[in-house]
Design brief:
three-stranded antiparallel sheet; about 40% helix
C-alpha cells in the first residue's frame, strides 16, 4: 500500500513533463531513475505518442507486451529530440539505437541500414532492386523502409503490374544477339516483359518504368486516372491490344493492398563515398583553389535550455580524426540561444588562430542555416586573422550557406561534395548529443546524492554458494552478507559503469582524444 502514492506521483510527474512536448516528429528516450536509457522510439507526434504510455486507460501488457510494460514501470525521465520530418526521426532512431544499445529495443541493434528501392535510371532498360547500400550515381532511390520483408512483398506485387526487370544482366539496346537469348521464368508467368530477349522495345519499357516511378511518387488514384486517360486515348486510336494491356494493369493496381502511405520520401544515410572525389567536388562548389584537407564541424545540443553543450569534430582528407575532437560546456548563455552558444564555441576554439598563433582549418562547417552562419562570423569579426571559409548546412533542404553569398547553394542529394558535408555535420551532431547525455546523467546523479538517496544495495550473497558449498554438512547454516555503502563516503568521481549511466571521468585515452576546451 505504501508504494501506491509514490507510483502515482511518478506518473503525474511524467504526464506533466510530456504535456510540454511538441506536437512534431521526433525521437524520444525513456530513462530510469539512474539516467540510463531504457528505450528509444520515434513518433510522428511526440506529445501524443509518449503520453499514450502513461494514460490511465492504457493496457500496455496486452497491447505492447510484457517487455514494454516492464519498461514503462521503470521510466523516471524522458528526453526528446525534435526532427524536421518523419524520415529524419526514423534515421535518428536508427543511429541512436545502434549507438546506445538500449536494453528494451529489440530491433535495429545490428549494423544494418534501412532498405531502399533503387531504379538504375542510366541503364537502357532500368532495373528495380531492393538494397541497403544504394549506388552513388545513376539511380533513383525511394525509402527508407522499416521492414525489408514487407518491401519485398510490395515490390513483388508491383512487378506483376509494371513488369519491370529485377535481374543484374547488362542489357543494351544495340545488342543484336539478345533476340536469341532465352528469357527466365518471370517472362512465362507474365511478371516481366523480358527486355533481355528483345520482347519489348526500349521506348515501351521506359513507359512502364515511368508509370512505376509515378506510382511511387504520387497518390494511387492519380496514377489510375492517368492510366485511364491513356487507355481511352489508345481505344480512340483503335489500338485495342495496347488499351487492353493498360486496362489489365489498372485492375491489378486496384487489387493491390500494400499498406503504404501516399508519399514516399528519400533521405540518404551514411553510405560510403570516395573522400578524394567528395573533397574535389566540394572545392569546385565552394570555388576553392584546391580540395580542402581539414574540415571542422560545430554543433550545439541542449534540452529546454539545460546542460547546453557544444561539439567540434575534425575531418582530415575526408576521414574523422578523433584526436581533434573537442567538447564545450557553454558558460555564458542561459536558456535556449543557439546563436549565442555558437558564438561562444567559435570564440573559444579559434581565439589562438585569430591571433595568428595557430592555423585555421580549410573549412569551418556550422550545423544550421543562415542565422547560425552569421553568429559564427560575428564571433571572428574582431580577429586579426580571419578564417578562410565558413559555411553552414541546413538540415531540411540540405542548403549550403556560404560567407559573402546571398543565396544558398542547392546540390542533388547524391552529390559527393554534399555528402562529405553531411558526414561532418552528422558526426558533430552525434558527438554533441553524446556529451549532452553524459552531463544530464551527472546532474541526475548529483541531485540524487544531495537528496540523500543511497546507491542501490548489493544483492544478498550466500557465503557458501559455490560448487563446494553445495555439499555443506547437514545442519550447517549459510551466512548471509549484506554490504551497505555509507552516504558520507560517496564520491562523484566513482569509476564509470557505462557512458550513458552516470557521467564519471572517461577512460584516460578518451580524455586525451576528447579534451574539454576552456
Amino acid at each position: 500500500m505504501s508504494d501506491r502514492p509514490a507510483e502515482a506521483q511518478r506518473i503525474d510527474r511524467i504526464r506533466a513533463l510530456v504535456a510540454h512536448f511538441p506536437k512534431e516528429p521526433g525521437v524520444y528516450l525513456m530513462k530510469d531513475d539512474k539516467g540510463r536509457v531504457l528505450y528509444v522510439g520515434k513518433a510522428k507526434d511526440l506529445r501524443a505518442r509518449v503520453s499514450s504510455y502513461f494514460q490511465a486507460s492504457a493496457d500496455l501488457l496486452s497491447s505492447r507486451g510484457p517487455e514494454i510494460a516492464s519498461m514503462a514501470a521503470q521510466v523516471d525521465d524522458i528526453d526528446f529530440l525534435e526532427c524536421d520530418t518523419e524520415v529524419d526521426a526514423l534515421l535518428q532512431e536508427n543511429r541512436l539505437i545502434k549507438d546506445i544499445q538500449p536494453p528494451y529495443n529489440e530491433r535495429l541493434k545490428d549494423g544494418k541500414t534501412f532498405p531502399y528501392i533503387e531504379i538504375t535510371t542510366r541503364d537502357d532498360y532500368p532495373g528495380v532492386f531492393i538494397t541497403r547500400t544504394p549506388r552513388p550515381k545513376g539511380t533513383k532511390i525511394y525509402g527508407p523502409f522499416t521492414s525489408v520483408n514487407d518491401l519485398r512483398d510490395a515490390v513483388n506485387a508491383l512487378q506483376k503490374v509494371f513488369k519491370f526487370r529485377t535481374c543484374e544482366l547488362d542489357i543494351r539496346e544495340d545488342d543484336d544477339k539478345k533476340r536469341f537469348f532465352r528469357p527466365c521464368l518471370l517472362y512465362n508467368i507474365k511478371q516481366c516483359t523480358a527486355p533481355c530477349a528483345d520482347k519489348i522495345s526500349r521506348a515501351d519499357y521506359k513507359k512502364d518504368i515511368e508509370r512505376f516511378k509515378r506510382f511511387l511518387n504520387s497518390k494511387q488514384s492519380t496514377v489510375l486516372r492517368e492510366m485511364e486517360k491513356e487507355m481511352q486515348a489508345l481505344s480512340t486510336e483503335l489500338r485495342f491490344e495496347e488499351a487492353a494491356r493498360i486496362r489489365d494493369r489498372i485492375k491489378a493496381i486496384q487489387k493491390l493492398n500494400l499498406g503504404r502511405t501516399d508519399t514516399l520520401e528519400w533521405q540518404p544515410e551514411s553510405f560510403y563515398i570516395d573522400p578524394a572525389k567528395g573533397l574535389a567536388r566540394l572545392a569546385k562548389v565552394l570555388e576553392l583553389d584546391e580540395p580542402p584537407r581539414i574540415i571542422e564541424g560545430i554543433d550545439i545540443a541542449n534540452l529546454q535550455g539545460q546542460e547546453t553543450v557544444g561539439s567540434l569534430v575534425c575531418f582530415i582528407d575526408g576521414r574523422p580524426l578523433k584526436a581533434g575532437y573537442r567538447r564545450f560546456r557553454i558558460k555564458s548563455v542561459e536558456g535556449i540561444d543557439d546563436y549565442a552558444s555558437i558564438r561562444e564555441v567559435v570564440r573559444r576554439r579559434y581565439r589562438r588562430a585569430g591571433g595568428g598563433e595557430e592555423m585555421y582549418p580549410d573549412v569551418i562547417l556550422i550545423d544550421g542555416g543562415l542565422g547560425q552562419l552569421h553568429a559564427a562570423m560575428e564571433a571572428v569579426e574582431d580577429h586579426f586573422v580571419k578564417p578562410p571559409m565558413v559555411i553552414s548546412l541546413a538540415k531540411r533542404e540540405e542548403e549550403i550557406y556560404v560567407q559573402a553569398r546571398k543565396q544558398p547553394i542547392r546540390l542533388p542529394r547524391t552529390d559527393e561534395g554534399l555528402r562529405i558535408l553531411q558526414q561532418v555535420r552528422d558526426e558533430a551532431h552525434r558527438f554533441a548529443q553524446h556529451y549532452h547525455h553524459i552531463l544530464r546523467a551527472k546532474r541526475q546523479f548529483d541531485e540524487d546524492v544531495n537528496a540523500g538517496k543511497r546507491p542501490p544495495r548489493r544483492q544478498k550473497k550466500n557465503a557458501r554458494k559455490t560448487d563446494a558449498g553445495l555439499n555443506r554438512k547437514k545442519g550447517e547454516k549459510v551466512v548471509e552478507i549484506e554490504q551497505e555503502i555509507p552516504l558520507d563516503v560517496i564520491d562523484n568521481d566513482l569509476p564509470p559503469m557505462d557512458a550513458y549511466d552516470v557521467d564519471m571521468p572517461p577512460p584516460e585515452e578518451e580524455v586525451q582524444r576528447h579534451p574539454e576546451v576552456d
